[in-house]
Amino acid sequence: MSGATLRARAAPALAILIGSSVWGLAWFPYRVLAQWGVAAVPAQACTATIALLLLSLVYRRSLGTLRWSWLLAGVAFAGGITNVAFVWGTTHGHVMRVLLLFYLTPVWTALFANWLLGERVGLRGAGLIALALGGAGLMLWSPELGWPVPNNPGEWAGMIAGAAFALNNVLLRRVSLELPDVKPEMRSWTLYLGCLVGGLLVLPFDGGIASGGAALSALTSNPATAAVAVALGCTIAFSNVIVQFGLARVPANQAALIMLFEIVVAAISSWWLASEGLGTREIAGGLCIVAAGILSGILPESKRCKSTTAGDAMV
């Protein structure tokens, strides 16, 4: 394999890896905003608004490529559920436990990809999924917390976000195949439109008007709070554009495995910033997750699913 071909295959995976790293750290600024008076759902709606405005400004010439499609409506719907549930869950729940339930996504992805894309996991893919999920279980299980099943609203939010996230990734993959004229940045624009609408719809369940008013007051009266919200909104907007580049070129099952790297980033950041433990078992589990993601990208596969392009490889 030539160096140019290797770089071409590595770039999409690296793009997804960068996006996963951003979301592995995003829980912390959302918690900071919550401490400063901006609750989880208003904070999510605020950063989604900032991301939407930024993308509209920077990529205004691409707005004309948008058109009505049930696929894009599905991206908005699934993206809104993902972001609202993820932000609420990681703000109110145990970060690592919420993320474990969130990153049951390879299971959901396998189902959605088979249904919507015709991608078959195969024996090797099933082995890599087992390695990744085994690593996640090894990394996050503890006698004190018990098995990774939802025990509180934050954990249920994490699991719901994971299922919606898998659906969103599969739909984005299908959009790239069936609507190639829609620019990648407009897929991100559609996603954040869904995040904004989803945040507004869920706001009554997170304090309603009082919570929204308190968030608005905190953002307008404290420059530091506003700066964190703006910086977070800009970061997630551009990281999502980068991820779209990767998702358009990587089969959904492989992308789901690469995204498991978020757990590793979250484990380190939650240990460092929230004093959540990280021991030998957690490190070993993280290495299993990283190994599964790397192997999914470099091991050859003789069969290709019907949804892949010439440059894609099956998990």
TrEMBL record:
Instruction: Write down the superkingdom of origin.
Output: Bacteria
Q: What InterPro entries does the entry give?
A: AA-Vitamin_Transporters (IPR050638), EamA_dom (IPR000620), EmrE-like (IPR037185)
Protein transport is among the record's keywords: no
**What Pfam families is this protein classified in?**
EamA (PF00892)
Domain EamA residues, every copy: 13-140, 154-295
| Lyase among keywords | no
Residue stretches spanning the membrane: 12-30, 36-58, 70-89, 95-116, 123-142, 154-171, 191-218, 224-243, 255-274, 280-299
Which UniProt key words apply to this protein? Answer: Membrane, Transmembrane, Transmembrane helix
Query: Chief localization class?
Result: membrane
| Membrane-protein topology | Multi-pass membrane protein
Q: Where in the cell is it found?
A: Membrane
Q: Which PANTHER family does the UniProt record give?
A: EAMA DOMAIN-CONTAINING PROTEIN, INNER MEMBRANE TRANSPORTER
- Protein family according to the UniProt entry: Belongs to the EamA transporter family.
Task: Report what the protein is called.
Answer: EamA domain-containing protein
